[in-house]
Amino acid sequence: MIPRRIVLLQGHPDPEAHHFGHALAGRYAGGARAAGLEVRSVQVARLDFPLLRTKKDWESEPVPPALVEAQRAIEWAQHIVVFFPLWLGDMPALLKGFLEQIARPGFAFAAASAGGMGQKLLGGRSARVVVTMGMPALVYRWYFQAHSVRSLERNILGFVGIGPVHRTLIGMVEGMTDRRRARWLESLHDLGAQGA
């Protein structure tokens, strides 16, 4: 079944729209909308929020006001698409800080009882992770075993009940030919049309 409600989380820390990741998100959104799907977008770089510094803040302080709409969009969505460039082998720090702020007890999961794991509150949603990088995607996938994407899938998305999670890894972005770039944009348009 195709999800009807999709939220795009643009995790590039530069809000300017000249990056390939922004173009990919735009094509995905265009394909989804052309297929009659509803799309909301969250531009992490345009949100003003502090980083969490203590467990107490994470557990008991309210989510920053700038992130309330982002939580509502995630709650509304049936499918979540996360876009980010690979920086130093991982997601950019701003995206990680955003996810830490969003995935709070009471929203993303229910606090565990003594000895329990807690209830995953964001179940029933699927996801796709779209990562751009300078290295060949095969090197990242096989040699580095896509470690940061696997961590995101298991320790954040899976922890709160989001699954299945699919990946789109796009390598050699800096030296990419116009033809190859156009093929990737078309591929993301098709994924959007499928709500995949």
Features:
alpha/beta, Rossmann fold, two-stranded antiparallel sheet
What's this model, at a glance?
The chain is of the alpha/beta class and 196 residues long. Helix 1 packs parallel to helix 7.
Mind sketching the topology for me?
Layout (H helix, E strand, L loop, with lengths): L4 E6 L9 H15 L3 E6 L11 H6 L7 H9 L2 E7 L7 H10 L6 E2 L8 E2 L5 E7 L4 H7 L3 H11 L7 E6 L7 H17 L2
Parallel strand pairs: 1-2, 1-3, 3-6, 6-7
Antiparallel strand pairs: 4-5
Rg is: 17 Å
Class inferred from helices and paired strands: alpha/beta
Domain module count: 1
Which shape, going by the Cα principal axes?
globular
Instruction: Give the CATH level 1 class.
Output: Alpha Beta
Helix content: 25-40%
The named CATH superfamily: Flavodoxin domain
CATH architecture: 3-Layer(aba) Sandwich
How many helical elements?
7
Please tell me about this protein's structure:
- The chain is α/β, with parallel strands linked by helices and 196 residues long.
- The protein has a single domain, classed as Rossmann fold (3-Layer(aba) Sandwich).
- Helices cover 38% and strands 18% of the residues.
- The protein has helices spanning 20-34, 55-60, 68-76, 93-102, 137-143, 147-157, 178-194; strands at residues 5-10, 38-43, 79-85, 109-110, 119-120, 126-132, 165-170.
- Strands 2-1-3-6-7 form a five-stranded parallel β-sheet, with helices on both faces. Strands 4-5 form a two-stranded antiparallel ribbon.
- Helix 1 runs parallel beside helix 7 (178-194).
